[in-house]
Structures are given as C-alpha cells and as structure tokens.
Amino acid sequence: MKQTGQGVLQGSEIFFSSPSVRAKNLFYHVLCAGHFFCDSVYSVDREHYDSYLVLHVIKGSLSFLNKDGVEACAREGETVIIDCYKPHSYCTHDKLESVWVHIDGSDTKKLCDDIINTRGNIIRKRNNNNIRESLFKLFNVLGGEKRFFEPEMSLEVYRLILELWNEQDAQGVDKETSRDGIQKVIDYVALHLNEEITVKTMAAIAHMSVTHFSRVFKQKSGFSPYEYVLNARLNTAKELLLKTDMSVTDVAYETGFNSEANFVYCFTKNEGISPGRFRKSWF
Questions:
Q1: Domains and CATH numbers, the chain
Q2: Parallel/antiparallel/unpaired status of strands 52-65 and 96-105
Q3: What is the mean pLDDT of the chain?
Q4: Ranges 59-68, 91-100, 141-150: which has the least confidence
Q5: Which single residue of 167, 238, 252, 275 could bond 257 by disulfide (Cβ 3.0 to 4.6 Å)?
Q6: Which residues contact 219 (CB under 8 A, 6 or more apart)?
Q7: pLDDT tens digits along 38-93
Q8: What is the CA radius of gyration of the chain?
Q9: What confidence score (pLDDT) does residue 102 get?
Q10: 29-67 b/e (C-beta count within 10 Å ≥ 16 → b)
Q11: Long-range contacts: 68-75, Cβ < 8 Å, 24+?
C-alpha cells in the first residue's frame, strides 16, 4: 500500500498484518512493515503503539528519544529498536530512507528489553546487512511477495531478534578473538573448579578489562561470570553425587565451595532439593 503523510515521500510503502488469537498468544508476529522515504518534515509522536519498532537506516538519519529520555541519532547502516509500549517520538532532520517493522508476541518484550538494556537502542555492527535483509524479507512477505503461515513468520521474526541480540564485539575486538578468549575462560573454569576463581582472573585470561569481559561473557553465554562458575560447580557436583561415593563434604570442597553448609545452601536454592535427596533420586 502506497503511503502518504507529512514528510513521507513518493515511493514509500506500508503493509499491515492482523495476527490470529493463537499467534498473539504463542508466536512472534509483525503488526506492520514499511519502506519509507522521508524529508525533514517527517516526525512521529505517540503515546503508545503496543509493539517494538525495529528500523534500519538505509540513508540519512533518525533522531529519537532513547531509553533514558535523551535524544539520540542513528545514521546510515545503523539499526534502532524502540519500545513503543511507552510514549515515544522520532523524526529526521535531513532525509531518511528506512525499512522497518513493528513486532510483538510471545516473549518479544523480554528479549527486546534485554537488547535495549544491554546494548542500548542503537545496534551498531561492522556489517548490518543481515538485519537489513531480514527486515526486507518481512516487509516483502506482508506485501504479498511470498505468503508465510504464522509459524513461519514467527521464525523469521525470531531470527531478526537473534540478529539484533547477537552483538558484534565492541572496542575493536575481533569477533573470533573474543570467541577464543571466552572459550579459554570456559576451559579454565572446567579445570580449576576446586580453586578460587575471580572475575578479574577470568578477564585476564580473555585479555579484556573486567567490565568489558563481564558484558561480553553475559552476551555470549547468557550467564554472568559468577553465575557461570556457580552453575559449572553445581553441575559437576550433581555428577559426583550420582556417580561416586564421595561424601557431601568432599563433593563440596572438590567443586570449589568453601564449606559444606555453603554448598548445601547453594545447591538447595538452585535445584530445589538438597544434595542428599538429589543423590537418592532415580535417573
């Protein structure tokens, strides 16, 4: 559908989609998608449009209020994600060509909020082509180029979200170098579970600052460094409890806990069952 409006130029198109009740409850879905050409008069100011806007700047720039209420600007090649459940506004001060979608459904809110909270509203990568291609694919599907059933559409939206979430490493750190550093840390943790393991030590192994390491490690693994070490200790403890005759005390010290009491507390809190009862469970 051709789009006309204040600041929206000829050649702009927008398409809408009405998801089924099942899709609203279970799947990711697209509410609308557009490919816009805009001039400096273009602006949007809304109380809400219950969804998340993902907009890729092809040419020009987009100014908007970020999650902290401060004006930010996304430029050519960058992607913006905005929580449209909240009051929001954006515009261009020069010209803008963009491809965008409004997405919602399933756990979109949790995923998108995590992206915004950890990465900010602007997604910057050395190569944002995957995001751009994904957005155009969704735009073309809504435009009738190729019909998708709702589960297929859900998969495409999820791929887009993962691409937004899959950060390319900042501060000039090469992606492969970062992956190698994280792998070295994981290997180190596995071999030194019964020793004290600090975030400072882990960051040094990865050749990163503590702050940068903590952020990258959480991005890559889903765990904070502390959570990962604790999880590794508990998983090893479960194996020892089931496969050996070691006492609970010995298992505690073998997996790096400083006392049996601390081990029992952490194990019970995380697993919902004491080490002794876990050992008696049948698998």
A1: 13-165 (2.60.120.280), 175-280 (1.10.10.60)
A2: antiparallel
A3: 90
A4: 141-150
A5: 252
A6: 118, 167
A7: 999 999 999 999 999 999 999 999 999 988 889 999 999 999 999 999 999 999 99
A8: 24
A9: 97
A10: bbbbbbbbbbeeebebeeeebebbbbbbbbebbbbbbbe
A11: 72/121, 72/122, 74/122
Residues 6 or more apart whose Cβ sits within 8 Å of residue 186:
221, 228
pLDDT of residue 171: 43
**Cα 238 from Cα 243, distance rounded (Å):** 9
Decide: 150 and 22 in contact? Cβ < 8 Å. Answer: yes
Percent of the residues in the chain that have a pLDDT greater than 70, as a whole number:
93
DSSP SS3 for 102: strand
Looking at residue 165, its pLDDT comes to: 83
Sign of CA dihedral 271, 274, 275, 280: negative
Distance CA 81, CA 67 (A): 10
d(CA 56, CA 175): 22
- Say how far apart CA 24 and CA 82 lie, in whole Å: 20
Q: What is the pLDDT of residue 176?
A: 55
pTM: 0.70
How far apart CA 195 and CA 228 sit, in angstroms, is: 15
d(CA 65, CA 122): 11
Q: What distance in Å separates the CA atoms of residue 171 and residue 152, rounded to the nearest whole number?
A: 36
* Residue 135: both structure tokens together: 């957005």
For 201-211, the pLDDT digits (tens) are 999 999 999 99
* Amino acid (1-letter code) at residue 201: T
